[in-house]
Amino acid sequence: MSQIVAGGKRQVSAKPTAVDDSPQQYLTFSLGGEVFALGILNVKEIIEFGNVTEIPMMPPFIRGVINLRGAVVPVIDLSARFGGKSSTVSRRTCIVIVEVENEDSKQDLGVIVDAVNEVLEIPRAEIEPAPSFGAKIRADFIKGMGKVDGRFVIILNVERVLSTEEIAMLARIGDDDGNAVPSE
């Protein structure tokens, strides 16, 4: 709350600041029986699972690449990235195309999820900090825990789920001319 001084009297303005409790939108999805969320501003589109071309000698969580309207997009298996077994493909399995920022560029990535649920608005006041222990995934992968209808939704930190080095490697996969500049 901002204070206004008028004629020697202090009044408190009822005008809230823009960042206080404005709800944020998140795409929620299921993965291994848990509900996760990604900031909607990172999500570009959702497509059916299919036509993933495997690439030899990649880490197990890199499922391969897809051709998305002429662009080569690396596809990540989040379940494997979190240390679990590879996702089992079902009729509800989707690839969520997200945009991840890397130091000076942006990279589109496909993320395999068991099923897309819905878009939720979660007020900032309903988001708790990431737990320091007890989560099934690394704490630095978690941006926060959103409280929705008495349950928690794990809000992922997209930039942390993939380290800078891994993003650079993914950028080289998707680089059309193969001349990606190595990261420092």
Structure description:
- This protein has three helices and 13 strands, in the order βββββββαββββββαα.
- It has helices at 78-81, 158-161, 164-174; strands at residues 3-6, 9-12, 24-31, 34-39, 43-48, 62-68, 71-77, 94-102, 105-113, 115-122, 127-128, 142-148, 151-156.
- The protein has one domain: CheA-289, Domain 4 (OB fold (Dihydrolipoamide Acetyltransferase, E2P), Beta Barrel).
- The protein starts with a strand and ends in a 10-residue tail after the last helix.
- Mean pLDDT is 79; it is low at 1-18 and 176-184.
- The radius of gyration is 20 Å and the shape is globular.
- By secondary structure, it is mostly beta strands.
Low-confidence stretches: 1-18, 176-184
Fraction in helix = 10-25%
DSSP summary, beta strand count = 13
Name the structural class: mainly beta
In short, what is this structure?
The chain is mainly beta.
Write the layout of secondary structure elements.
Layout: E1 3-6, E2 9-12, E3 24-31, E4 34-39, E5 43-48, E6 62-68, E7 71-77, H1 78-81, E8 94-102, E9 105-113, E10 115-122, E11 127-128, E12 142-148, E13 151-156, H2 158-161, H3 164-174
Parallel strand pairs: 4-13, 7-9
Antiparallel strand pairs: 1-2, 3-4, 3-10, 5-8, 6-7, 8-9, 11-12, 12-13
Summarize this structure as a short list of keywords or feature phrases:
184 residues, disordered C terminus, mainly beta, OB fold (Dihydrolipoamide Acetyltransferase, E2P)
